[in-house]
Amino acid sequence: MTERAEMIEWIRGEMVGPSRPLTDPESATFANRDFTDLMALRRGPLAWRPAPDAALQEALYYDRESPHRKYGMGLLHAPAVPAINPPPNQAAQAALQATDTIGAEPGADEQPDEVNGNQAEEGDEADDSGTSSSAAPDASDEFEVTSPDVRHPSTIGISFCVQLDARGSVVVRLPQSRTFFWQPEGTAQFQLNGRYEACTRRWTDENGVAKNGPIWRRLPAVLPDAAVTIDRNELVHGRVVRKDVLMPQGSPLALRVEVFPRRLQGQENVWLLTVVLRNSTDPAQVQNAHESILYQTFFEAVVSEGCFEKYPESRRPFSQLDSEEQSLALLYRESATWGIGHGCAAGWDADPNQAPESLYADVMPAVQLPSMTPDIELNGTQVRLSMRVLGNLPDDGTGEAWQFLENLAAAYAAWIQQKRAETTGLSANHALVANRHLDSCDACLARINAGISLLRNDARSRRAFRLANLAMLLQQIATKQLNRRSLGWNPGLGIVAPQGDYRSPWSIYQSGAEDTAKLGYWRAFQIAFLLMSLDGVRDGQSPDREVVDLVWFPTGGGKTEAYLAVVAFYMFHERLLMDAGRPGPRRDGTNVLMRYTLRMLTTQQFQRAASLICAMEFVRRNPTTTGLGNISGQRFSLGLWIGGDGSPNNCDVARTEIGKFRRGDIEGNPLVLTECPWCRSEIGRYDGQRPNTVPENQWNMARMRGVSNDGNNCPLLHCPDAACSFGQAASANWLPVEVIDERLYERPPSLVIATADKLAMIAYRPAAGALFGRRFLAGNLHRESLPPGLIIQDELHLISGPLGTMYALYEGIFERLCSFERDGGWIKPKLIASTATIRGADDQVRSLYARTETQLFPSPGLFMGDSFFWQIRAG
User: Fold this and answer.
1) Integer Cα distance of 848 and 764 in angstroms
2) d(Cα 275, Cα 548) in Å, to the nearest integer?
3) Contact 531/448 with Cβ under 8 angstroms?
4) Closest by alpha carbon to 348, among 304, 315, 314, 303?
5) Cβ contacts of residue 445 below 8 Å, gap of 6+?
6) CA pair distance 526, 473, nearest whole angstrom
7) Which of 288, 214, 218, 217 is nearest to 62 (CA)?
8) DSSP 49-78
9) How far is CA 817 from CA 11, 687, 745, 758, 763, in A?
10) 250 backbone φψ class: left, alpha, beta (φ>0; ψ -120 to 50)
């Protein structure tokens, strides 16, 4: 957290000011507005003291910098031109409508008190202290929240609600400095509410030539205890209260606090106040306009003899909110909005269910979001489900692995039951929504229990489940435990080779040496999602096949591994069905499509998915070594289908790009992979010094490792270490990773990672039909294999707006391409989507996929911070 706070501190210093110097500033002494600098070449920060006991203030001089150019936030300018007033009988009403979005304005029978002929309350008359309360609306009574010149604003404000007793008051304070909640203890306060004076810096350069230039010195713009008090008896509905801020002697600035009060209907002694700080300096009285700017603007409001009330966010009754708005109202009922900002943010520091002590106007707001953890505890013990144990799930239904699964389902059921009991303490509206949430949790629980029952009763599913757990464990060992082995010159072998000793995930697994502190265990939501997905991906006619499962979890929680586990189970299960001799097309074509919207994201995910595919292929290739039995079909493989900008379209282009890479003309392996996904040996070009034993004309070829041509002269990927299972001499044993479009069509990979724009090109690439199990033979379309039965859509929230519109046009086509007929009906693909943030998921799924059922997982409970599968991290 210290690093984050330091970053915010630095950004605020640069954007709002005063900037935080990297070194201690040197002191400057001014004679009137002149600073005689004794250094010929001045570098580094400067500061000065307006008085001997005053705090240091910055002085800006470097490269003729000035505060109005250096700082872009928190500036209040003097008004450039007089405001144009509305017609007399519209002024007050226009102000109400401009600032009021929650229904505090009076009805037809409730106009501002003066309009109805009432006398002003005692103390409302103007006095000699700079205080005034406007009388009946007229041309001089315009209340502006926003500035006419948005580039040079002269006002900022906040609106909030207060309950005031008869002797209550609201105090608006303008501090000279403040410590923000996000600053670590002991950090210097930020200086606030300052102004700058234009001065002259005089010095003699290294050649003895007299020089002069501008220097701006900062001063506090307000007095140490600057504040304005608005008493309860000054508040009249719809009448603006204006009070000048007492300024330091000689200050060119004039500041005014304006308060626009409205009574809230149906709430006794509760007022909606809009408090505005205005730079009311007369520009005609200031010689330098930049000296009339208030910098680092900040004010706060506190209440005496009263309290803040929650800001009413909506006028609509609860019954008129849509289902998602009702859910949010329940989940965030302990949180509250206490104010809104005008030209700034309204800030407050308060714990949930606690009213703040003050509200403040801040031009650079910062909020600390609660940290969500997927690591849950039951009876004081963290829920950890071992991949190794589940990978050896016994056939007899007994043992530790089965107990793990049963305990997880039982704990979830108990949590749902407990939350049902807690709904009795909720309001009727919230209880209705809470029970709807828990009904969704029950649906998830039913599918989890169905998955456990399937594993007990179906041997093929049980074996696929075991294999998926093993493959995921091997993948984690490869990506999280093995170290990258960089290329280097090996003088003993006389070749460029990976440095260090070869280690494989399988050897580590066999010896039980996996690092259990950071890998090898499922988070509770991951294994739960796998269990609830089993039947929908296994059985094309399952009711779950029509449901779009949406994995909704904070970033970094493990969404990717949750759906990769489902991918592994489905592909293993399809191969085991081939063992059973099922009639019909083959099941070892493209099984899964994973789709992304950003190509950069696709490349990152590709590196992770490659390790899983290598683990699955290792298990398939080595039935004797692993002792896991034969797995039918062609190799498990991975394909990247993202277009020419990300990977080559054909072998000719690939050879050309690889040649450029060997020579050093381009950076980055054109075949994408930078290391072996199995042993992490570097794939690419060694950029170290050429040894004398290698001729210069042979060096480019010698220093390139991990890419070689196959028998058809097409560049393919392999491990540069011959000891690796994927680095042996025969090209059939090379890496099961394809990145060249031409190769994808010839040998459709089991898992294809693609982008939406590439899928849109299928109409122009008949050969791409092979990815959907279709191929032209002798001019006739032939069903070669079953189409993909599982579609993974990552980052669903990105498919919105114009992109979502275009996406939806293709979705019907893709679904039909991924469907096939059986027993007189169509078997559709299973859809799984993931996202870290989404709004309107049901509507988006219906618009994109024409599917009417969406299952959000984990389903929320009674609070946003507790869905059983995630909780707010303490501290």
Assistant:
1) 23
2) 48
3) yes
4) 303
5) 409, 412, 413, 416
6) 13
7) 214
8) -SSTTSPPEEEE-GGG--HHHH--SS-BPP
9) 51, 46, 15, 15, 12
10) left
Rg of the chain, C-alpha, whole Å: 35
What confidence tens digit (pLDDT) does each residue in 768-790 have? Answer: 999 999 998 888 888 999 999 99
Between CA 645 and CA 482 the distance in angstroms is 31
Mean per-residue pLDDT, 694-720: 92
Span 116-120, average pLDDT: 39
Instruction: Examine residue 18 and say whether the peptide bond preceding it is cis (omega within 30 degrees of 0).
Output: yes
Question: Element (H or E) spanning 454, and its range?
Answer: helix 428-457
- What is the full DSSP assignment across 475-544? HHIIIIISPPB-EEEETTTTEEEE-S----HHHHHHTT---TTTSSEE-HHHHHHHHHHHHHHH-TTSGG
Angle at 680 between CA 677 and CA 685, to 5 degrees: 100
Q: Express each pLDDT in 195-251 by its tens digit.
A: 999 999 999 999 999 999 999 999 999 999 999 999 999 999 999 999 999 999 989
d(CA 256, CA 243) in angstroms, rounded, equals 6
Taking the chain, what is the end-to-end CA distance rounded to the nearest angstrom? Answer: 12
∠ CA 840-844-848, rounded to 5°: 175
Side chain identity, residue 59: A
Cβ atoms of residues 298 and 178 within 8 Å: yes
Q: Which amino acid is at 603?
A: T
Does position 596 have pLDDT exceeding 90, yes or no? Answer: no
Amino acid at 513: A
Which tokens belong to 149? 């010149």
Candidates 96, 80, 66; CA nearest to 153 is 80
The C-alpha angle 692, 698, 699, rounded to 5 degrees, equals 60
Q: 866: which DSSP letter?
A: B
- Per residue in 261-298, pLDDT (tens digit) is 999 887 888 999 999 999 999 988 888 889 999 999 99
Helix, strand or coil, per DSSP, at residue 128: coil
Whether 566 contacts 537, CB under 8 Å: yes
Distance CA 829, CA 276 (A): 58
Q: What are 455's two structure tokens?
A: 């594993």
Which residues does residue 826 pair with via DSSP β-bridges, in sequence order?
821
Alpha carbon distance 291, 66 (integer Å)? 11
CA distance 562 to 550: 11
Lowest mean pLDDT among 269-283, 616-630, 690-704, 836-850: 836-850
Dist. CA 801–CA 101, nearest whole Å: 27
Structure tokens at 40: 């010929």
Does an H or E element contain 22, and which?
none
- Return d(Cα 671, Cα 669) in angstroms, integer: 5
